[in-house]
């Protein structure tokens, strides 16, 4: 198994892959080409050694991947719009400038802030508010079990609901292609669609598993924090105080979850590890779909570009995006 860690994300009609020193995004255009954008990348932890500390590196990595993920999603959306405009123009006998879309840092920043705000409100505040209605706030354990259960249910129902939309179904197929290509690489097999197709679409280090570990660990951490608060003040925290307390502990929860997920990738054959990652693998039955050979091609192109491979066995025409 290669020592180089690789992770990725499905985007609109494509896949983003990130290695230790490079990020690459490959997108399939309506006319069948594969557009590839590859750039050197230095992680925040490499820029600032303090961020390599255990737990802290996990919290930082979570935010870093969120920013990078939204950036590549925006890129793939821009490509899809640009390529469709080009096809429409050709049908009408018109011409376009042919230039790739330019990124807008302001819009990216606003998108990240909005996504964070909505995620925090829906998956953190709303479960607490609903749990408050059941009059169990004086029992920290029962309250956080209820809130955690509501949070998990909302997440699973959300991904299950969007899986019925055609565009999201294709993204879930590319998600499966991402997992299959990474598994192919990790097992040392030849990076071709025929080999990748034989591998499972489920992967223990998937972001889905990370989210579930966060949700499960949060129940324990928040129950402890609420108990300590009640012992210190003589009463349980009110809704807004509880929300603020839980939110302030999110970096600790995310960082610890990251370390657990990282450990699971190294000890995936251990019985306890299998128990830890199993819920994430179950949810991946929703968040991934079996990809087509064309989608596996795109994922492999992205993976090879992130690894700096210059001689690819993929026969499809690839066009570099400056």
Cα-based radius of gyration, to the nearest Å:
21 Å
Estimate the mean pLDDT confidence.
Answer: 86
Strand content: 5-15%
Order of helices and strands: EEEEHHHHHHHHHHHE
Structural class: alpha+beta
Poorly predicted sequence stretches spanning 5 or more consecutive residues: none
Distance between the termini: 32 Å
| Strand element count | 5
Strand order of the largest sheet: 1-2-3-4-5
Largest sheet: 5 strands, mixed
Based on CA inertia axes, which overall geometry fits?
A: globular
The number of helices is 11
Helix content: 55-70%
Write the topology of this structure.
Blueprint: E1 7-11, E2 14-18, E3 22-28, E4 34-40, H1 44-47, H2 56-91, H3 105-132, H4 140-162, H5 166-186, H6 193-196, H7 207-233, H8 239-248, H9 250-266, H10 271-287, H11 293-307, E5 318-320
Parallel strand pairs: 4-5
Antiparallel strand pairs: 1-2, 2-3, 3-4
Helix pairs in contact: 2-3, 2-9, 3-4, 3-8, 4-7, 5-11, 7-9, 7-10
Short recap of the structure:
This protein is an alpha+beta fold and 322 residues long. Helices cover 63% and strands 8% of the residues. It has helices spanning 44-47, 56-91, 105-132, 140-162, 166-186, 193-196, 207-233, 239-248, 250-266, 271-287, 293-307, and strands spanning 7-11, 14-18, 22-28, 34-40, 318-320.
List the main descriptive attributes of the protein structure presented here:
about 325 residues; alpha+beta; 5-stranded mixed beta sheet; 5 strands; about 65% helix
């Amino acid at each position: 198994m290669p020592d180089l860690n690789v992770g990725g994300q499905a985007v609109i009609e494509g896949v983003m892959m990130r290695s230790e020193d490079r990020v690459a995004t490959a997108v399939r255009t309506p006319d069948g080409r594969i557009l590839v954008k590859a750039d050197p990348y230095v992680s925040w932890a490499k820029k600032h050694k303090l961020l390599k500390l255990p737990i802290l590196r996990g919290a930082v990595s979570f935010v870093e991947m969120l920013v990078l993920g939204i950036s590549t999603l925006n890129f793939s959306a821009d490509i899809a719009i640009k390529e469709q405009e080009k096809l429409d123009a050709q049908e009408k006998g018109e011409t376009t400038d042919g230039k790739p879309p330019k990124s807008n840092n302001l819009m990216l920043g606003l998108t990240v802030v909005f996504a964070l705000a909505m995620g925090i409100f829906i998956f953190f505040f709303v479960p607490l508010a609903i749990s408050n209605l059941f009059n169990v706030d004086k029992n920290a354990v029962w309250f956080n079990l209820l809130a955690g259960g509501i949070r998990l249910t909302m997440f699973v129902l959300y991904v299950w609901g969007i899986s019925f939309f055609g565009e999201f179904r294709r993204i879930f197929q590319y998600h499966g292609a991402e997992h299959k290509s990474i598994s192919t690489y990790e097992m040392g097999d030849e990076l071709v669609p025929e080999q990748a197709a034989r591998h499972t679409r489920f992967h223990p280090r998937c972001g889905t598993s990370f989210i579930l570990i966060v949700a499960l660990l949060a129940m324990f951490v928040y129950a402890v924090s609420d108990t300590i608060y009640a012992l210190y003040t003589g009463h349980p925290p009110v809704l807004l105080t509880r929300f603020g307390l839980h939110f302030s502990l999110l970096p600790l929860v995310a960082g610890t979850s990251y370390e657990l997920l990282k450990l699971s990738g190294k000890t995936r054959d251990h019985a306890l590890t299998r128990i830890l990652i199993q819920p994430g693998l179950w949810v991946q039955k929703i968040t991934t779909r079996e990809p087509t050979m064309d989608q596996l091609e795109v994922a492999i192109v992205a993976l090879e570009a992130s690894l700096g491979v210059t001689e690819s066995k993929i026969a499809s025409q690839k066009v570099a995006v400056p």
